[in-house]
């Protein structure tokens, strides 16, 4: 079923944490969409609010709180949905994989059992299993286990686990880091999600394994039509995988557009700085570039542009004013008061900016 409506539509989302230091505004008015079958990246430095955004989508923001805004997944408004509806969406709508596979994998159950259990959650997403399945005895009935076991083998093969039929009795500790990531991906895929939310799934892995897993995600996207929201701090991952990118900083969208547009014509000073910090953009003898200053702690109302204190173009307006979202080109926007001051990397758009 295809429609013109986005699969996921996030509007003016705000997620806060109440701490003894004050209210942390981790997500501050984020708006974006993900369409059916699309791969969208959210990129930004550590502490920009990427993970809290992802967790808010599947309503795992606790101990944070969504204070306003809308998360529309197909016809479900996730911010006001009851627990039963949220479980249904998590059962077969949005599945999430995390940086650390052990947040998902239970060390005391075989990997194959955990994949099968995830299939059961998908088939009856209306029961308590999603939240409880790691605590209840697994397989009270063996009926149907054989066909599910075969499907688990298929899924393990699909995510690139070699000789899956020989690993049916393996526990997570018998898997390498890369294999655990694949196992976690298989558990997520067992629910046949429309949207896979992947939060830095390859950060802890070496580059070869990282490339293999990204390649696998791309293949699954193409073969199954599954949309992907990829959370990463790495513009290289964005370049390799994503159709569109959202550059995030201080809980807000700084720049968004098709990946090629944003990477070849980066317009926000923050995007420029991120690109300049990529090791590929530094010659071997030079020290690596860094963005001076630190990510804000996001306590209280920041006001103005969150990047202002680190931006060489910043003016008074940036520190206190309402920051406009400017069309850089079609489908490519940046939230900045001073785009006209940033030297243009794409001569064709110079005229558009002035
Ligand atoms: N449980 C929590 N309590 C208080 N503040 C939190 C909590 N979780 C996250 N935050 C704050 O929310 C902000 C956004 O954090 P988040 O983890 O989303 O950033 P990130 O961009 O995903 O970074 P990383 O890549 O390091 O995970 C940070 O200022 C962080 O300190």
Provide an overview of this structure.
It is a peripheral membrane protein. One of its GO terms (molecular function) is ATP binding. Keywords: ATP-binding, Cell inner membrane, Cell membrane, Membrane, Nucleotide-binding, Translocase, Transport. This protein is α/β, with parallel strands linked by helices and 354 residues long. Among the domains are: 91 residues, no CATH class; 88 residues, no CATH class. 31% of the residues lie in helices and 22% in strands. An eight-stranded mixed beta sheet has the order 6-7-8-3-9-10-12-11, with helices on both faces. Helix 3 crosses helix 5, helix 3 packs parallel to helix 6 and helix 5 crosses helix 6. The radius of gyration is 21 Å and the shape is globular. The C terminus is likely disordered.
Q: Can you tell me the overall shape? A: globular
Strand order, sheet with most strands: 6-7-8-3-9-10-12-11
| Hetero compounds | adenosine-5'-triphosphate
Distance between the termini: 43 Å
Secondary structure class reads alpha/beta
Report the uncertain regions.
126-143, 349-354
Write out key terms for the chains shown.
8-stranded mixed β-sheet, membrane, 354 residues, binds adenosine-5'-triphosphate, single chain, globular, 4-stranded antiparallel β-sheet, 12 helices, ABC transporter ATP-binding protein, alpha/beta, ABC_transporter-like_ATP-bd
């Amino acid at each position: 079923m295809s429609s013109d409506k986005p699969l996921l539509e996030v509007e003016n989302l705000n997620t806060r944490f109440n701490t003894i230091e004050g209210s942390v505004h981790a997500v501050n008015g984020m708006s974006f969409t993900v369409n059916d079958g699309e791969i969208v990246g959210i990129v930004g430095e550590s502490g920009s609010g990427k993970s809290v955004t992802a967790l808010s989508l599947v309503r795992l923001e606790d101990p944070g709180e969504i204070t306003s805004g809308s998360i529309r997944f197909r016809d479900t408004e996730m911010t006001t949905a009851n627990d039963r509806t949220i479980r249904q969406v998590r059962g077969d709508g949005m599945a999430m994989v995390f940086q650390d596979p052990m947040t998902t994998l239970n060390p005391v159950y075989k990997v194959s059992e955990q994949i099968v259990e995830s299939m059961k959650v998908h088939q009856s997403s209306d029961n308590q299993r999603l939240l409880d399945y790691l605590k209840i005895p697994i397989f009270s009935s063996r009926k149907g286990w054989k066909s599910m076991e075969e499907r688990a083998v298929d899924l393990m093969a699909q995510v690139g686990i070699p000789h899956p039929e020989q690993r049916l009795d393996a526990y997570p500790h018998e898997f390498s880091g890369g294999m655990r990531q694949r196992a976690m991906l298989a558990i997520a895929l067992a629910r046949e999600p429309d949207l896979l939310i992947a939060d830095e799934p390859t950060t802890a892995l070496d580059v070869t394994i990282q490339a293999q897993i990204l390649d696998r995600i791309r293949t699954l996207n193409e073969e199954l039509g599954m949309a992907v929201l990829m959370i990463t701090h790495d513009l290289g991952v964005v370049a390799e995988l994503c159709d569109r990118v959202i550059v995030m900083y201080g809980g807000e969208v700084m720049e968004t557009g098709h990946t090629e547009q944003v990477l070849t014509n980066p317009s926000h000073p923050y995007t420029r700085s991120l690109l300049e910090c990529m090791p590929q953009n530094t010659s071997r003898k030079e020290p690596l570039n860094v963005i001076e200053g630190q990510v804000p702690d996001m306590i209280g109302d920041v006001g103005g542009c969150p990047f202002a204190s680190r931006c060489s173009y910043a003016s008074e307006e940036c520190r206190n004013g309402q920051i406009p979202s400017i069309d850089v080109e079609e489908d490519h926007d940046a939230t900045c008061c001073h785009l006209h001051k940033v030297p243009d990397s794409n001569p064709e758009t110079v005229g558009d900016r002035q």
